[in-house]
C-alpha cells in the first residue's frame, strides 16, 4: 500500500462513519502561544471549549504539523533516529459531543485490523491507571471495551492491555480546561513479535505507538478539581509517517526482519532517490550506534534523513506563509534551513541544492495540500534566497570555526556567539561540528552573551517611565470613544507624573487615541474652566489607561474636575489616511508578490506611513509600479470602510490576523471595500477616497527576509508634489530648458562634464609628473635607499596617491612620504620599494606612526598605505622630523 493509498483509506473509512472530511489547518496557528500548529486538535479547540458551535459533530482529516522549537521540539533528534520529524502529518478523527469511547475504540480496531490488516497478536492497548497524586480514577470503561475486543480476537486481555499513569495516559490541554484519560495503540515490530507488552512505553524503536485515542470527559479547575463535562468528546491522533513506515518496512506485514523506520516509505524514498542523483551516495538505512562517534557511512544516512525531513518542513511552512527570519517561528525555519545546508555541505552538495528538493516535495504532497502547488515557485525562490545569503558567510564561518578549534581546542561562549551573530551558525550546528572534532562548546557562556545582546536591545528601545499617581484611583482601562467623536467632556480621575517632570492626565473616557499598533498617539487640547493645556502625546499604561501628556503646571487641578477634550482634527485625519493606506498597501503587496507577504511592523503618523513586511528579495521596479497603481485604483474607487467587533473565534474566514499578536476574546475587524479585511484597533477613514492618492517614497531591505516601504498620501503628498514641481522649475531655469526636455539637457551636460573631467585628469597627471620631478631633487639617501618627504598641494586624497605612485616609480629603491591639507584635514600617503621593505621601512607602519602624532589614524600594506588626521598645523614639522 502506497502512502497515498494509506492516507485515502483512513479518510474513506471515517467518511463511511459519517465524518465530515475537512482540510488541514494552516501551519500558522491561531493560538498566540504556539509557534506552529503541532497537533491535529489545534483547530478544533474552540469546539472543545464550547466557544463555538461545530458545523459537524463528526470530523476527520490529515493535519500538517511541525514540532521544532517551543515545548514540542524534535529538531535535535531528526536524522539520528528513524522516527522523529520536524514535519509530519497527523491523521485524526473527532467527536464533538457525539460518540464516545465505545465507537472510538471499536472503529480504531476495525481500521487497524480489518482494513489495514495489522497482525492482532502484535497489538497492545494502554489504559489509564492513576498513580499516586494523579487525577481521576481507573478508566474501567475503556478497559472493558478493550477486554471484549481482545477476547473476541482470541487474545489474553491481561497480556494485551497495559496500564499507564498520568504521564502516558492522561491528556490535558493545559493546566486547566478540557482533559481526560486516553488509550494508545502500540505495535510490536520485533522479529518474533512475542514481547508480551514488555516494550510498551519503554522507548524501544521496536514497539511503536501509532494511535492515541483521547477521551475528553473532565474540566480541570484552577482549584485542582476534575469536574465531569456536560458534553464528552473524542480526539484521536495517528502518526501517518509511522504507519506508512511500518507497512513499508514489513512489506505489508510479511517480513519483520528489518529494523522499523519511518524513512522506508515512499514519503521519503522519492527524496532519497533525488539526493542519490545529486551526491552519488545511495541511502543504506544505517543508524549511528554511538551518536558521539558516527561513522562516515552512518553520517551520510543521517544527512539523507535530515535533508528529506527539512525539505518537507520548509516547503509546507513557506506554503502557509511562514518565512525564514530573525525571530520566533521565522527564526526556527531559518535555523532548520541552515542546518540542512550545513549537512548538505558534508555530503558534498553545492550551494542551491536544497531549493532543488522543493519540486520533489510538491510532487509528493501537492495533491493533498494544494497550497504547495500554488506556491511552488515562491517556495523555491525563498529557499534559494536563504541558501545564497547563508552560503556567502558559511565558508568564512567554517574557516573561523576550524581556526578556533585548532588554536584553542574548544569553543568558548564568546566564540560560539560570534559564529551565531556574525556568521549565522545556530548553536546546535556549532555543537554538532564540535562534537565531530571531539571538543566542547561553552553553552553557558553562549547564553550569557545572548543575554547581553538582549539587554542591549532592551536598552535601545524608547521608553516612557511613568512614576507615581496623585490619587488612589483604581487602575481601570479608559473607555475610548474616539471612533465616533473627536471632542467630548470628561472627568479627570487621575494625574500621573513622569520622570522628566512631565504630567499625564487620566479621564474616565476620552476621544484621544493612545499610541498602539504602529499608530501614533493623538495630540490636541484640554480645557478646564480657567486652565488650558496642550496635549503633546497620548500613550497607554499597562492597565489600558489613556495618559494624556500635557505641558504646563497641573498643581491646581483637582480630581473630579470636568474638562473639554478636543483632538487635533487635522492631524488625526492625516493619521487615519496613512493608517487606512497601510491596509490597502498590504493587500496590494500580497496581490503582486504573493500570499507569503505578512506585516512585520508598521508606523503611521500624519506625515507618512512605514510598512515592514516579509519578502525574500528586492521588489522589481515594475512590481513596485503595479503595487502603487493597484493602491491608487482602490483609493479612487472610494470604497466604504467599515468596522465591527466580534468574538475572535467568529471572525470572518478571510480576515488577516497578525500572528504573534495577543488578541482578546473580542476583536475589531476593519473591512475596506471587502478586499482588505484585517484585525485592527486603529482609526481609519470612512471611505478610501479620503486618502487622496498614495505615492511610494522608498523600498528597501531592513533585514534578511524583511523589507520596508515608506509612502505618503493626502496633504503630505500634495506638499511633496509642490516641492517636486518647484525643484523642476528651478532646474529648468538653471539649465535653460523646458521641463519636458530636462532629461535630454542633463544628459548633454553630463557628457560635457565627463569630457572635461577626462581633460582635467590629463592635466593633473602631467602636473603630478612635473611635481614628482621637482621632488626628486630633494631626495635624501642612506644605505643605498632614497627618501622623499614633503607637504604638497592636492585636490583630494586620490590625487595625493597618484603623485606618490608617480614619484616612487621614478625614485627607484626607497621611501616616499607625502602629506597634504584636504578640506581642512590632513591626508598622508607612504610608498615603500621592495628593498626598503626588507630594510624595515614598511609603509603601513610609517603611516600608523605619522597619523598617531597628528591625532588621526591610518594603515595599509608594506608597499602602500594611507591615513587621515585632524592636526593640520603640525603636518609640516612632523614630516620634517620623519626619522631616517
Concise structural overview:
The chain is 38% helix and 24% strand. It has 884 residues and is an alpha+beta fold.
Overview of this structure, please?
- Helix content is 38%, strand content 24%.
- With 884 residues, it is an alpha+beta fold.
- Among the domains are: 386-458, no CATH class; 466-567, Elongation Factor Tu (Ef-tu), domain 3, CATH 2.40.30.130; 580-721, Threonyl-trna Synthetase, Chain A, domain 2 (Threonyl-tRNA Synthetase, Chain A, domain 2); 760-880, Diaminopimelate Epimerase, Chain A, domain 1, CATH 3.10.310.40.
- The strands form six sheets. Strands 1, 2, 3, 4, 5, 6, 7, 8 and 9 form a nine-stranded mixed beta sheet that branches. The protein has a six-stranded antiparallel β-barrel with strand order 12-13-17-16-15-18.
- Helix 9 runs antiparallel to helix 10, helix 10 crosses helix 13 (376-408) and helix 20 (742-776) packs parallel to helix 21.
- The longest helix is centred in the C-terminal third of the chain and has 35 residues, at 742-776.
- The chain is globular.
- The N and C termini lie far apart (88 Å).
Break the fold down into its secondary structure elements and pairings:
Elements: H1 3-15, E1 20-21, H2 45-49, E2 58-66, E3 87-96, H3 101-115, E4 123-128, H4 140-152, H5 157-160, E5 161-164, H6 166-169, E6 170-172, E7 177-188, E8 207-220, E9 226-239, H7 240-249, H8 266-279, H9 296-319, H10 328-346, H11 358-365, H12 371-374, H13 376-408, H14 413-421, H15 427-437, H16 443-460, E10 466-469, E11 479-480, E12 487-498, E13 503-507, E14 509-510, E15 524-527, E16 532-540, E17 546-550, E18 562-567, H17 569-593, E19 599-604, E20 609-614, H18 621-636, E21 641-647, E22 666-672, E23 676-679, E24 694-703, E25 706-713, H19 714-735, H20 742-776, E26 780-782, E27 785-791, H21 797-811, E28 814-822, E29 825-832, H22 834-838, H23 843-853, E30 856-860, E31 864-869, H24 875-880
Parallel strand pairs: 1-2, 4-5, 11-14, 27-28
Antiparallel strand pairs: 2-3, 3-9, 4-7, 6-7, 7-8, 8-9, 10-12, 12-13, 12-18, 13-17, 15-16, 15-18, 16-17, 19-20, 20-25, 21-22, 22-23, 24-25, 26-27, 28-29, 29-31, 30-31
Helix pairs in contact: 3-4, 8-9, 9-10, 9-13, 10-13, 14-16, 17-18, 20-21
